[in-house]
Amino acid sequence: MSKFNTARAPAATSPVRGEATPSAVTHQGGAGYLRDTRAELFLLAVTNMVGEHTFYESAATRDTRYAELVRQSTLDDPQWTARFLRWLRSGAHLRTASLVGAAEFAKARRDAGLDGLSRQVVADVLQRADEPGELLAYWISVYGRAVPKPVKRGVADAAVRLYDERSFVKWDSAARAFRFADVLELTHPAGGGELFKHILDERHDRGNAVPESLATLRRRAELMSWDVGRRRELFDRPGAAGVLRVAGMTWESVAGWLQGPLDARVWEALIPSMGYTALLRNLRNFDEAGVSDDVAQQVAERLASPVQAAKSRQLPMRFLAAHRAAPSLRWGWALERAISHALANVPALNGRTLVLVDTSASMNNSFSKDGSLLRWDAAAVFGLALGRRCAKADVVSFSDGYWDRSQGTKVFKLRRGGSLLGDVERWKSGGYFIGGGTDTVGAVQKHFANHDRVVILTDEQAAAGDVGKALPAHVPLYTWNLAGYRVGHAPSGGAHRHTFGGLTDQAFRMIPLLERGRNADWPF
Prior knowledge:
Layout: E1 24-25, E2 31-32, H1 37-45, H2 59-76, H3 78-90, H4 95-111, H5 118-125, H6 131-143, H7 149-162, H8 165-171, H9 180-187, H10 193-203, H11 215-224, H12 240-246, H13 251-258, H14 264-270, H15 276-281, H16 283-289, H17 293-304, H18 306-312, H19 316-325, H20 329-342, E3 352-358, H21 375-389, E4 392-398, E5 409-412, H22 420-429, H23 440-447, E6 453-458, E7 477-481, E8 497-501, H24 510-515
Parallel strand pairs: 3-4, 3-6, 6-7, 7-8
Antiparallel strand pairs: 1-2, 4-5
């Protein structure tokens, strides 16, 4: 009998590698598998908002672990780490984690007496005009005011690329410890012309007039000179939107300029020049102000545009947050289209798929201080999106039924022709966020019925048992990690056991590759 030349594809490998047998325990006492440095760093970074507590780790513990992993990875494989940090900002759309990572990369290289790479890594992760100051503020708060040349030069490169009149009026603020002028004085970027000179003049109150060449700043100064009592008169005139646009006035700055609420006519003047993210975050404000249906339709068309959605680099969860903040029916279709664009890489899988969504208490934990994005919300979004694309899927919410022993798991019935956002809201209102502990082994054993694959969306902190051994060895187990803790619940990297992570849809592309017997690599 043939042992190797069989119809089943050989077990392919994936990049998140861990040990084959458990040598640790999870936070809930289950069998725990440790991972290599790159795998642990990747899973932590792609779910790390920096400075935020998680259910099992304090912010300080988590941030220290992240910095140590970046430094170790930098010494082990600087080229890989450089590519990873660039992707973390550009592909995973995580700003603070990439900035901190770039600083720690430079620190590790400097401490080891190594030249090269740091300047490029720092410059690569700085992609918004407030970020040069953010990175310097981090460095000085952690390592003091002696900023090494590669960091200064990387920041200077970014400042030349990012600083213009509009970014200056948008992002420079006395509320920031490092203002644009502070960045310029510390890093001494070449070029910048009259704009950089004006930024320094204004910071030091030298009283110099705005140069003629800086048209945006001059128009803004004109608007700021208007008497407060007559500023709303601007919106009685045709072309108000153009006046505001030329002056680089964002909706936040207009609110401060008017010193009062933004009514419908103000919003309707602002909307044509607002960016995608600003539109997404203000849908409720548009409704409350009474923006007309015609203008709302224009907003909806921009939100639904695949090109606009892709350029915005929004995480899928942001569309769910917008939907919950502004449940008006006039935004529903646009947000459904937008989240579908953000999840375009979710594959259509043949055969039968068991999708297990962890809704234990540790998953009822926010990614950020505002609490708008919870880990179990993300698990439900990704799990339901996958279930809707599969030829046949069983989607199950699980915990351990601590609060109700009769309900450790709950099967979610997918409906043909429904919407993803509608499914997520039905999940929420139907009691599928269970709470309690994490009996992953019990959920697998209860619901596995000769499926072709099992996908578990979880923080991996399973209770008693060994998740890696809960399935027959030949059945692929794909774990989607949403927390980045040090210890995993199963082997990973081969032998039909694979772990992915993150808050975007990119890693989903690995599943079809692995099932065709092709090795999957890092997404960068």
